[in-house]
Every structure is written in structure tokens, then in C-alpha cells.
Amino acid sequence: MASERKFIRENTNRILIKEFLIKKIEGAGFGGMNIQRTPMGTRINILVERPGMVIGKSGSKIKELTSDIKEKFNVDNPQIEIQEAGSKAPLNAQIMAEKLAEALQRGWHFRRAGHSTVRRIMDAGAKGCQITIAGKLTGARHRTEKFTRGHVKYCGEIVKEVMNNGFAVAKLKAGVLGVKVRIMKPNARLPDEIRLKKEQKEEKPEVEKPTVKKEEIKKTTDIKKLTEIKGVGPSIVKKFEKAGIKSLEELFKMDVDDLASVNGVAGKTAENIMKNLKKLLEEVA
């Protein structure tokens, strides 16, 4: 029984650490974590959408997280590593659930927010997705709304392999809304899919010609140039810098929802920036 108790204790601790991180780094786009034991200690790999909000100024926030995890959960020498979700964020169910919950808290209508999230997930290449929003949506009674598109699996062993689940909570004046996101991965292979292999013909091996790899030129424009847009002042630039955004090119890759999710940036300001950002980048070029 000693080994069984050890497994139960470790898995319980793992779930408690995950719940603690979701609350502690709220707004950074938590996408999951992985805990590994090493001879040097315990390595905790955290996947987030906005790493700057987790690391903090000069690493202050990540040091605080490390000390809290060590004291509260009795973890031996924790070493936290931050991994950026990047372009794979729309295919992470936990990140999309948190983004949808944030949109609902900002006042978006649940139908508009649900359809917008489904569209973004499918555009990223997912084979299917389902969004469930439950709570007091329009009236005093609790009800559930589902937004489904593409192929979705509900039961069986295949669900563990091809489906990615995420859950978040939106706190509104009327009450609490539960948001559940289920995404079928783009590379998911279902049991009923049949692929025919083409007959391969023997070909003479070709001599590979040496290729020269050209270094990619990465241009970055200082985010302080953003003040040239009408209605955008130095205070808004500082808020983006606190969120870990240092160049106009990083802003250009984001959408209006991502900009509006930065603490202190209103929705109208985010729309104004996105409208004028392309012109500003063309002038700099």
C-alpha cells in the first residue's frame, strides 16, 4: 500500500499545483504544465501565451512563484521553466477557455464570443471543436449553450488521444459562467480512417548539391514608436512593455482580443492601434 499512497499523494500534489498556477498567473494565458523529477530537483515546465506577465520585472514574479511552490507544496528545489505557446495557442483548449472567459467578463455577448472562438480554433487547423457555456446567460434560470463545428469525439479510448480539454470560469454580476473547450488536434488519426500507400518505384539516388543557408533577417521596431498613433500615449506603451511586448512586429502578430486583454488597455484603444499599426510599420520600412 505504501507505493499506492505515494502515487496518490504525488498526483494530488500535481493537481493542487496546477490549480494554484491557474489562479496565480491569471491573464497570462495558462496552457498547461509538466512536472519532472531530476537529480538537481523538480523541473516545472509551464506553457503560457504571454511569458512576460509570468516572469515579471527582472524575474521578480517567477522567483515569488518558485518560493510559494516550495513552501506550500513541499516541492524539493523547484525550477520553473517558461515556454511560450506562440502560434499554437489557438489549438490549446485551456488557453482558449481562459480567453473566452476573459471576453465574457469584458461584456461580450455569449453567442458572439462563442462563435468567434470556434472560428479562430478552426482557422488554426483543428479537425473539430466544441465550446460549452453554462450558467445564467440571459435570464434568472441556469442553461447551457453549445457551439460545435467539425468532428468531435465524446467517449471511448480515442478521446484521450485526439481530444484536448480546457476549463475556465467567468465571474459576472449575474453569477458564475462555466466555460469548457474541447479541441480535436490537427494531426489526430481516427480508427476508421484508412490510408492507402502508393507503390514506390526504385529511383537512382541523386547526388545532393550543397545548399547555402541564408540567415533570416529579423527586423524589430521599438514599441515607443506607437505614440505616433493618435490617441496612444506613453502610459499605454508602458503597459505593453510590462506585458513583455517590446516591438511593433509583436503587436502586429496579435489580434484585437489579445491587445484588449492587456491590463489597462481598453477595447476601443486596441481597435485604434490595429487600424493604424500597418500604416506605421510601412512608414518605418
List the helices and strands and how they pair.
Elements: H1 2-24, E1 30-38, E2 41-48, H2 51-55, H3 60-73, E3 78-84, H4 93-105, H5 110-123, E4 128-135, E5 143-150, H6 158-162, E6 163-171, E7 176-184, H7 234-242, H8 248-253, H9 256-261, H10 267-284
Parallel strand pairs: 2-3
Antiparallel strand pairs: 1-2, 4-5, 4-7, 6-7
Helix pairs in contact: 4-5
Spatial ordering of strands, largest sheet: 5-4-7-6
Q: How many helical elements?
A: 10
Major sheet summary line: 4 strands, antiparallel
Structural domain tally: 3
- In percent, how helical is the residue content? 25-40%
CATH class of the largest domain: Alpha Beta
Which band does the percent of strand residues land in?
15-25%
CATH homologous superfamily of the largest domain - what is it?
A: Ribosomal protein S3, C-terminal domain
Distance between the termini: 67 Å
- Number of β-strand runs: 7
Order of helices and strands: HEEHHEHHEEHEEHHHH
* Radius of gyration of CA atoms, rounded to a whole number: 23 Å
- Unreliable segments (pLDDT under 50, ≥5 consecutive)? 209-217
CATH topology of the largest domain: Ribosomal protein S3 C-terminal domain
Structural class: alpha+beta
Shape-level CATH architecture of the largest domain: 2-Layer Sandwich
CA-based shape: globular
Provide mean pLDDT, rounded. 82
Description:
With 285 residues, the chain is of the alpha+beta class. It has three domains: 10-84, GMP Synthetase, Chain A, domain 3, CATH 3.30.300; 89-184, Ribosomal protein S3, C-terminal domain (Ribosomal protein S3 C-terminal domain); 223-284, Orthogonal Bundle (DNA polymerase, domain 1), CATH 1.10.150. Helix content is 40%, strand content 20%. The protein contains ten helices and seven strands. The chain has helices spanning 2-24, 51-55, 60-73, 93-105, 110-123, 158-162, 234-242, 248-253, 256-261, 267-284; strands at residues 30-38, 41-48, 78-84, 128-135, 143-150, 163-171, 176-184. The chain has a four-stranded antiparallel sheet. Strand 6 (163-171) and strand 7 (176-184) form a beta hairpin. Helix 4 (93-105) packs antiparallel against helix 5. The longest helix is centred in the first third of the chain and has 23 residues, at 2-24. The termini are far apart.
